[in-house]
Design goal:
The protein is built from no helices and 16 strands. By secondary structure, the chain is an all-beta fold. It has a 5-stranded mixed sheet with strand order 9-16-15-11-13, with no helix packed on it. It is rod-shaped and about 90 Å long. About 2% of the residues have low confidence.
Length: 203
């Protein structure tokens, strides 16, 4: 699961005639937080082996790969050092939320006349997304669902209704509390145009 740690063991051997010193481990793109080697620094005598632990700590759903290079005092003859390493593959499991659009705009012509907009909520992760609460900071904006769950790849149309109580513009925030993250969607309602009279043109 996302944030949890899973581990695998790797055997590192020193077939050479001098002590193998590993000063650290880096990923293909530099230091990595997803895959960590414990211990990160160690020494192995000639002809000896050491079991080290590779920990995988996913920060999101999906598959992750890296190549972990042991920064050691080894080389091949006169060539540049050929550092030993190991391929690491892990899969993070958990929900992830996406919404479209990421902002809702409302328009209405009269006080008390509601306007509705729809936001599509999608689970883009690989575990069940649980929405435990849908709320706003005022009672002018109301969603048609308070709790729901979505399986992997599933979507739901969430209807939000705005009922103006005056002619002024309004702003609010729709908050979705989930087991992935709490998501906030800005809500904006236009000012209601005021009727300033009628004009007649006679030719």
């Amino acid at each position: 699961d996302i944030g949890d740690t899973s581990s695998a063991t790797v055997s590192v051997s020193n077939p050479g005639s001098d002590t193998l010193n590993v000063a650290g481990v880096s990923g293909a793109a530099g230091p990595t937080d997803l895959f960590q080697v414990v211990p990160p620094m160690f020494a192995i005598a000639p002809g000896e082996s050491l079991h080290v632990t590779v920990q995988f700590i996913p920060d999101g759903p999906g598959s992750f790969t890296d190549f972990l290079t042991f920064e050691a005092n080894v080389g091949l003859g006169q060539d540049l050092p050929a550092l030993p390493g190991v391929s690491a593959i892990g899969t993070g499991r958990g929900p992830a939320i996406a919404v479209a659009p990421d902002r809702l705009f409302f328009a209405t012509q009269d006080v008390g006349v509601p306007d509705s907009q729809t936001v599509v909520v999608t689970n883009v992760g690989n575990d069940t997304l649980k929405v435990s609460g849908v709320s706003t900071f005022t009672d002018l904006f109301v969603a048609d669902a308070a709790t729901f769950s979505l399986g992997e790849g599933e979507s739901k149309d969430l209807l939000v209704v705005y009922t103006p109580d005056s002619s002024v513009a309004r702003v609010d925030t729709l908050v979705l509390a989930t087991n992935a993250e709490d998501l906030r969607i800005p809500l904006e309602a236009n000012e209601i145009p005021k009727n300033i009279g009628k004009a007649t043109l006679t030719l």
